[in-house]
Write a structure and sequence with these properties.
Layout: H1 5-21, E1 25-26, H2 27-34, H3 38-47, E2 63-65, E3 69-72, H4 75-78, H5 86-100, H6 107-124, H7 126-131, H8 140-154, E4 156-164, E5 169-183, E6 185-192, E7 197-202, E8 206-215, E9 239-244, H9 251-254, E10 259-262, E11 268-273, H10 281-287, E12 291-295, H11 297-317
Antiparallel strand pairs: 1-3, 2-3, 4-5, 4-8, 5-6, 6-7, 9-11, 9-12, 10-11
Helix pairs in contact: 2-3, 5-6, 10-11
């Protein structure tokens, strides 16, 4: 079952307390206690060692597992009373106040955050006064994130106006959100009712979003493993061949590919796969004289046509 970011944070905070009281707990027992799969638990355990009591990188949770049992090696050290430096207290207070203003935040969570902030202000003393003179303004993506997070929590459908760079157009669609995740940018994975397929949407490309009253009902699908990156071509995806000169060799570094053959001029003949070959027209425009699409033929023709239209538009403005 998909969970949102706030639910996952709650679970991981509870997990810390649970593991402290049960040294050497079995993975299967912990997963059963939290109502999650063992793979989901291992994923949480991969994140916990990046958390701790210091913003400076020290005092991190030293938690690991051998796949059967879970060990927390510095539980007593982490349990020591927290002492925040002035800059840490300021950063925490500013962040807490900013998060409490996010649209879509559940009221219960907002009130809990405000109570915690008030306690921290009391403990921080003079530092609290300095932090009150600072503020944070979220980019538009923040509001979209809050709406998606709420939709996942309340199991509601979303309406989007979404910019597709591959087609250079805005489309309107209804989606059933599945999860939020971050790989460089923040994304929503959802079941798109326009295409009746799973789609991934980058939040900063959402031009407009509305929370609908209609229940969200995505089909039961296996979540993709994103450990190898967002773009993971399938062997069933169409094959595209691109030839690049020496100035375009970077394509082989940024795009997953099946092969990259050396060319006499120092360039490469790159064979790759993509579920949406039309999206590579933008790559061809970016390459300019440093490369071109060889096949499929219709894609090569459309890329040349797009380049010609772009050049004519540029010359008309010159």
């Amino acid at each position: 079952m998909a969970t949102n970011a706030i639910d996952q944070t709650r679970r991981m905070l509870s997990l810390v307390t649970y593991l402290r009281e049960r040294p050497g707990a079995h993975v299967s027992d912990v997963a059963r206690a939290f109502g999650i799969t063992e793979d989901e638990l291992i994923s949480d355990l991969d994140v916990l060692p990046m958390c701790g009591t210091s913003f400076r990188g020290g005092d991190l949770l030293d938690i690991d597992t051998d796949g059967d049992r879970i060990w927390w090696h510095n539980a007593d050290d982490i349990a020591a009373p927290l002492r925040l430096a002035a800059d840490e207290a300021t950063a925490l207070l500013v962040a807490a106040r900013a998060v409490s203003t996010l649209p879509g935040l559940r009221e219960g969570d907002r009130q809990a955050l405000l109570r915690a902030t008030a306690k921290l202000e009391t403990a921080a003393g003079e530092v609290a006064g300095a932090s009150s003179r600072l503020s944070v303004t979220f980019e538009s993506e923040g509001g979209v994130f809050a709406d998606v997070d709420r939709a996942i929590s309340e199991r509601r459908r979303l309406w989007l106006r979404y910019y597709s760079p591959a087609r250079d157009e805005l489309t309107e669609r209804e989606v059933d959100p599945i999860r939020l995740f971050a790989v460089g940018h923040t994304y929503m994975e959802a079941w798109c009712r326009l295409s009746e397929a799973r789609r991934t949407f980058r939040l900063d490309r959402v031009a407009e979003i509305k929370l609908l009253d209609e229940p969200s009902s995505p089909p039961e699908i296996e979540l993709r493993d994103l450990s190898e990156g967002l773009v993971q071509p399938s062997v069933d995806d169409p094959e595209v061949v691109v030839e690049v000169g020496p100035g375009g060799r970077w394509v082989a570094e940024y795009y997953p590919h099946d092969s990259a053959e050396e060319l006499p001029d120092g360039g490469l003949r790159i064979t790759l796969r993509t579920p949406d070959p039309a999206s590579l027209r933008r790559l061809a425009l970016r390459l300019g004289g440093d490369g071109h699409i060889v096949s499929p033929r219709d894609l090569a023709v459309s890329a040349r046509e797009a380049a010609r239209e772009a050049l004519e538009a540029y010359e008309s403005q010159a």
